[in-house]
Amino acid sequence: MTERVGIGIVGAGLIVEHAHLPAYRSAGLTVCGLYDQDHARASRLAAEFGVQAYRSLDELVEDEGVHIVDCAVTPDAQENLVPQFLDAGKHVLCQKPLADSLDGARKLVERAHESGLKLAVNQQMRWEPTIQEMKRRLNDGRIGEPVLLTYRLNFMGEYPGPHWLNDLDRLFVRFGTIHFIDSARYLFGEPSRVTARLLRDKVQYAAGETFINAWIEWPNGATMVAFERYTCKTGDIECDIRLEGTRGAVTGRLGLYLDYPAPNADIIEAIQYGDPEWTLVSDTETWLPGAFAKPMLSLIDAIQTNGEPATSGRDNLRTLRIVEALYESDRLGRTVTLDAKE
Ligand SMILES: NC(=O)c1ccc[n+]([C@@H]2O[C@H](COP(=O)([O-])OP(=O)(O)OC[C@H]3O[C@@H](n4cnc5c(N)ncnc54)[C@H](O)[C@@H]3O)[C@@H](O)[C@H]2O)c1
Question: Is 0.85 topped by the overall pTM?
Fold first, then answer.
């Protein structure tokens, strides 16, 4: 069934080359073609993956074989383009962050709702292999009650020299931590309080924050702690996540950060308290491109069943409000309580 749904991709950048196109090919999805304002780049990639390179955006949206537009451009462009895709009757898969502000994101979600079309966001970390292992062990009781989820990241994640990311005042909470927030929501549900301290490095290229310290708390007492630094110059990399519960724990080395965007596998280990040592669970599954077909498959399923995609735009508003609350906490210098009704 999924191969009957045609995908048109707008944007032929790094993530489309290394994640979207390989993942869709492995999943047997139908990509009709690509459009990028840099036509030479779109043509090269289209030839490599055996699809067409559209000469204009109009050509893509007028293609009746395209049911879903996979919008993978820079975020400022996304906010302007999505209404055009909806007006042309296309369902849309957006990238994170959905929009520059929570208000902007709400407008896109409402516009999709009014059009009767589906809008989803590519928050694919939910399907990341270590997160999936954590979810399995939460569901079957091996973790027990969740106590502490840690994301520890220290690597060179900024681009020296000209890059659109370097011009943004609000940076890695919106582009990095957002994945950790969304996957933690997937594991634990909606949190109640957030606290953050967001810093800049003395020698960073980027204008926005590159050193993030964040605490997120859930009503049941579970806590997430994120330590993220994107300016490490030592060459060695820390990229570990870990969930400790009342009965057992899971830890994963996130292969994605070892040589981004090369497809390195996670090393996942688990322990039940009382066991003599950690046991290897898996060392073959990748986040990139492995998880990248999943938001698209969920969107296709929602279109075919008239359901809600797992990472729908509406669901994403709850991830984005936590992003905004982290910035607010840093600005105010105190913990921010989230409205349980939102
Ligand atoms: N794990 C993830 O989910 C993940 C990882 C990386 C990037 N992303 C997201 O994917 C998007 C693209 O990131 P990237 O790393 O591929 O960036 P990139 O700079 O490599 O590519 C962006 C492409 O978009 C094209 N583009 C920009 N504006 C356009 C427009 N109006 N019309 C047509 N083409 C346009 C550019 O020419 C460029 O080829 C961003 O929103 C980013 O946040 C997500």
Answer: yes
